[in-house]
Design brief:
Largest interface: A-B, 50 and 50 residues
Order of helices and strands of chain A: HHHHEHEHEHEEHEHEHEHEEHEE
Largest sheet of chain A: 6 strands, parallel
Shape of chain A: elongated
Number of strands of chain A: 12
Distance between the termini of chain A: 65 Å
Number of helices of chain A: 12
Radius of gyration of chain A: 26 Å
Strand order of the largest sheet of chain A: 2-1-3-4-5-11
Structural class of chain A: alpha/beta
Low-confidence stretches of chain A: 328-332
Helix content of chain A: 40-55%
Mean pLDDT of chain A: 95
Strand content of chain A: 15-25%
Oligomer: homodimer
DNA sequence: GTGAAAGCGCTAACAC
DNA sequence: GTGTTAGCGCTTTCAC
């Protein structure tokens, strides 16, 4: 007959006629227990409806098996795919992901870090929020891998995509297709994706003998709507012949704005879009798999947990510029 | 000078010259501690770099503050928005979300439930996976709210959208726009969203004097590609004049397929799409905010934790049919 | 308002 | 292979 309270190992051990420790081992180190004993324990556990208490185990062993994951915005596809990639690797390595989203707010990020530390996460994977203090300071004292956005000093492990090259190729491609006045719409300068991708854009201009025109470079867009507004404004004031969006949100904003333009500009952007083929406007996207980025970040974290003395590593995922047709119809 | 080990309350208490219990109270029940004492404790904690141990607190108090959230697929926007809505409410109520994704596989779902129970989650919010056993059996014994997909018996709390009405309105609208042979592409019959939305579709046909044609009803699509294939097949075999996609993935598949059709059919589907306005093909979508659904689910769970004796509730979120223009350009 | 004692459920460490 | 002991860091309980 089952007890009133949630059954514990003690109950199982009693029912199986063994010591608590033996019952514990039957689960966590089955090889160290005789077959017959193990079976007795497992069947007693079954009977009583025993369920392992991860809280107690984590506390006693001081190994929580938890990994904190901080993204800025869960429902941005980049971040949700990143989280899936991370979760897959963690699950395969018997860890659990503790997921939080900072909304790109350093205060919320700090709270998340504090909360996650209180759960004794073994490490952290984070897309660092927009902040004036460098990630190295904010994530000090806990094994951390930065994902997507790079750090300042290189003191942390990080996994990014090939930001500079991606932006450079996309910009060069716009130029090859005839664009000369290419608007660059970015997020804040505090984020390396914006600054590094801007470098790539500038490099492509330079290589093609096009003078940098700062009036075409607009930073500080943090949402689809920001970007939409800025793109409209740029269009009416300066009529650029092409737009480059620094990330998926900004590119969406450009696409929305451009729907209202009489003469459609060329549009290119960073980050893939699952539905790019269905869009009315032609668009070129610097693509990669965010889940792969996440998987690499998780792998890197696990490795650095294994080997705490290893120097920080910086992994860079290659990107590929893909062209989507707009009103070209699918042949098959 | 800070200690070697992670400082504990004991260290803080010693440094502050008070009992451990007093130090504990200074954090968790500040009102029960004299101002002066509290300040001593807090400053000692600060100095030592003390960090609360949620593991120990959860274990001792048997209140983990954790809520398990099981979705089928994190990087489906429906699910990621749902998760965000849930997380917002939980965070505001000082709980943490433990997120997992079942990939619509009952085995993985069972593992997740087990794992989450082992972390002593106080309750569960789940989009139940495709399974032959009813959710009521799989989620027994733990306060649970089903989200998006309904249960079988009504014994669990659940929050869904107005599936039947949404599908009925969308179908009626297709008919009003001239469609007579409307294909319905659904997921498995085990999921209530498919069955309930199918009812709505059939109701609209009935109300408009259109005979049900089972050859136009195709179930069992579990991915964008499934739906794409089925839509192409239907198109070449039966040339329906409209398609209804039972969810966002399936509607995307229909959109992809229809890009290759000479005579574009009318397309309608369940679930919103942020980028619907940018699509080449006109589409009508039964829309609602998944984050709102999540927020309601979380609220319902918290209420039922407060009041464990309350009978299960069934909350239904209204939906709205929105039309997107395809090649109509944005005026402003 | 504060403290002392006990113990949550488990596993590390060591003994046999 | 198995058992004993101790204790992870906190909060509950009860005393003062």
């Amino acid at each position: 007959m089952p007890a009133e309270h949630e059954p514990t190992l003690k109950d199982v051990a009693a029912a199986a006629g063994v010591a608590v420790m033996t019952a514990s081992r039957a689960f966590s180190k089955p090889d160290l227990v005789a077959q017959a004993t193990r079976e007795k324990v497992l069947s007693a556990a079954q009977q009583l409806g025993y369920r392992h208490n991860a809280l107690a185990a984590a506390m006693r062993s001081s190994q929580s098996g938890l990994v904190g994951v901080i993204v800025t915005n869960i429902d941005n596809p980049f971040h949700s795919k990143l989280a899936r990639g991370i979760d897959e690797v963690l699950t395969a390595n018997s860890r659990r992901m503790l997921l939080g989203h900072s909304q790109d707010d350093p205060k919320r990020e700090a709270e998340l870090i504090r909360d996650m530390r209180s759960w004794r996460v073994e490490g952290l994977i984070a897309v660092p929020a927009l902040a004036s203090t460098p990630p190295e300071a904010r994530f000090a004292g806990l094994p951390t891998v930065l994902a997507g956005r790079a750090g300042k000093t290189g003191a942390l492990n990080q996994v990014t995509v090939d930001d500079e090259r991606g932006a450079q190729e996309a910009t060069a491609d716009l130029i090859a297709r005839g664009a000369r006045r290419i608007a660059f719409i970015g997020n804040e300068e505090k984020i390396t994706t914006t600054t590094t991708r801007l470098s790539g854009y500038l490099a492509a201009l330079g290589e093609n003998g096009i003078r940098r025109d700062d009036s075409l470079i607009r930073l500080g867009c943090r949402s689809v709507d920001d970007a939409k507004r800025v793109a409209k404004q740029l269009h009416s004031q300066l009529q650029p012949d092409a737009f480059f969006g620094v990330n998926n949100q900004i590119t969406l904003g450009v696409l929305e704005a451009s729907a209202g333009f009489a003469a459609p500009p060329l549009i290119s952007g960073f980050d893939g879009m699952d539905f790019a083929d269905l869009l009315r406007a032609p668009v070129s996207l610097v693509s990669y798999d965010p889940a792969e980025l996440g998987a690499r970040a998780a792998t890197l974290l696990l490795e650095s947990l294994e080997n705490p003395e290893a120097p920080p590593r910086h992994d860079v995922l290659p990107v590929r510029l893909l062209h989507y047709g707009g009103n070209v119809t699918d042949a098959n």
